[in-house]
């Protein structure tokens, strides 16, 4: 899945382990953003309340078999009145996690609009996006291909690397795999930017 950037050989092993990546978690209210964050933080289910402002946590995640990476997550409230804030949280971010509720068919169009809006901002050009198709445990959840279509992923800018990951945040299924993909995309982008700089 994705635009192909995530299919190249990972270079994780050659990088120092003290790196910290700035990641913003976005998505409509009730998609499961805070559940994702606290499932990663405590590795257990935490009862959430609607996020009024934002939650922020630095979390060490072991990727692959041994590499530990620190992510600094910003979980920004998804209610309509809070969405204008998304722009300032994504300034200089390394990656975006966009959480969608796989059973909320009525609001998929709204999720699509917000996803395309935030990725089209000039500062976010080329910033990798992990789209989390959450709540896959529910019987009536949409399939990945249906979500890909409804979010119009084919219309995503070709400069934006992305990966669509099925998850169940309440038990943590798929979260680590998604983060590994996001990390790979971030590393590849950094390498590409460094090469472009050298050529200049
Ligand atoms: P938000 O931060 O995006 O607004 P929350 O969303 O993390 O607060 O989650 C909203 C509701 O969705 C919560 O239920 C939460 O338990 C539930 N949820 C989150 N992830 C999953 C999942 O993978 N599967 C299922 N079945 N539910 C999930 P409540 O009942 O507290 O509103
Ligand atoms: Mg929340």
Topology readout:
Blueprint: E1 20-26, H1 33-42, E2 54-63, E3 67-76, H2 86-89, E4 95-101, H3 108-120, E5 129-134, H4 144-150, E6 162-166, H5 175-199
Parallel strand pairs: 1-3, 1-4, 4-5, 5-6
Antiparallel strand pairs: 2-3
The number of distinct β-strands equals 6
CATH architecture: 3-Layer(aba) Sandwich
**Taking all residues together, what is the mean pLDDT?**
88
Q: Helices and strands, in N-to-C order?
A: EHEEHEHEHEH
> Major sheet: size, sense and barrel closure?
6 strands, mixed
* Overall geometric form: globular
What is the straight-line distance between the termini?
A: 32 Å
**CA-based gyration radius:** 16 Å
Helix and strand composition category: alpha/beta
Task: Please bin the fraction of helical residues.
Answer: 25-40%
Number of continuous helical runs: 5
What's the CATH topology name?
Rossmann fold
What is the strand arrangement across the widest sheet?
2-3-1-4-5-6
Q: Quick one: CATH superfamily?
A: P-loop containing nucleotide triphosphate hydrolases
Strand content: 15-25%
Flag low-confidence runs.
1-9
